[in-house]
Amino acid sequence: MTALHADQELNCRGLSCPLPILKTKKALDALASGQVLRLIATDPGSLNDMDAWMRSTGHTLLQAEQPRGEFVFYIQKK
C-alpha cells in the first residue's frame, strides 16, 4: 500500500482498549477538518475498535495496514 501523508502521528503501542480510542479522539479534536492522523497500535482488538468507532463518529478510515505486527491507521477528520 502507498503511504499517505499524515498531519500528525499518534503512538499507541503497548496500550489496550479503551486507551487507543481515547487518545485518538483527543488527537483528532486538535486537528482541523480534513486533516489526517496516523495511528500506530499493537492491540489486536484495535482493528474492530477502530472500525466501530469510525462508524459512530463519521471520521474516515483512509487506510489500515499491519506491518511488523503493528496496526497502522490513517484517519481523516470529518
Please sum up the structure shown:
The chain has about 80 residues and is an alpha+beta fold. Helix content is about 30%, strand content about 30%.
Secondary structure: elements and pairs:
Layout: E1 8-12, H1 19-29, E2 36-41, H2 46-57, E3 60-65, E4 71-76
Parallel strand pairs: 1-2
Antiparallel strand pairs: 2-4, 3-4
Question: What does this protein look like?
Answer:
The protein is α+β, with helices and mostly antiparallel strands. The chain has one domain (8-76): Translation Initiation Factor IF3 (2-Layer Sandwich). Helix content is 29%, strand content 29%. It is built from two helices and four strands, in the order E-H-E-H-E-E. A four-stranded mixed sheet has the order 1-2-4-3, with helices on one face. Strand 3 (60-65) and strand 4 (71-76) form a beta hairpin. The longest helix is centred in the middle third of the chain and has 12 residues, at 46-57. 21% of the residues are buried.
User: Given this structure, which CATH class is correct?
Assistant: Alpha Beta
What name does CATH use for the topology?
A: Translation Initiation Factor IF3
CATH superfamily: TusA-like domain
What is the β-strand count?
A: 4
Order of adjacent strands in the largest pleated sheet:
1-2-4-3
Question: Tell me, what's the shape?
Answer: globular
What number is the mean pLDDT?
A: 93
Gross CATH architecture: 2-Layer Sandwich
Ends apart, CA distance between termini: 23 Å
Gyration radius, in Å: 11 Å
Overall structural domain count: 1
The description of the largest β-sheet is: 4 strands, mixed
Low-confidence runs of at least 5 consecutive residues: none
Residue share in helix: 25-40%
Element order: H for helix, E for strand: EHEHEE
